[in-house]
Amino acid sequence: MATFASAQTDRQYVSQGNKLFRGGQYDKAEVAYRKAIEKNPRNPQAHYNLGNSLMAQRKDSAAIQSLQKSTELETSKTRKAMAYHNIGVVCQQHKMYGEAIDAYKKAAAVADKGTDYGYWKGLAMMKTGNAAGAKALFESLVESGKAGIVTEFVNFYGAEGTTGSTVENIN
Fold first, then answer.
1. Helix (H, G, I), strand (E, B) or coil at 57
2. I want to staple 100 with a disulfide (CB 3.0 to 4.6 A). Which of 71, 92, 135, 162 is the partner?
3. What confidence tens digit (pLDDT) does each residue in 95-145 have?
4. Which long-range contacts (CB under 8 A, 24 or more apart) does 161-166 make?
């Protein structure tokens, strides 16, 4: 029965952190997620959401560590892919394109049918000088009919390397 109460408490901290995060109070959300992790260090959602709050504060090294921990604990393919995606985003923002490509590959490998991961992987490939590989990747995604990629492909050739992250906090 004590375990159940503990699980409820970490969930309450995650919920509190999510409200703070949505309100743009990333530093306070960070504190709530850290409290959730103190209560239950094996809560993958708390680690993932902590990573997102750290990303929002530009604490990128700590964000990567937290997101990596969430990938080790997470059992949901979608959530694990989202964490790898965000690791890729941080790496890409720091022009660590090889690491970004690796993270996007991991995201695509675990995603049920991820589409955005292919786009970001292609963009990172282009930044490393592999424009032909990126174009081939985009064309294969378009041919496979994966939703969302067609728009990104059309916008690709004008892209300046902007990045986005999956910052939907998980309850």
1. coil
2. 92
3. 898 898 888 888 877 875 555 667 767 777 777 778 788 778 777 776 766
4. 161/92, 161/123, 161/127, 163/89, 163/92, 163/93, 163/120, 164/89, 165/52, 165/55, 165/85, 165/86, 165/89, 165/90, 166/82, 166/85, 166/86, 166/116
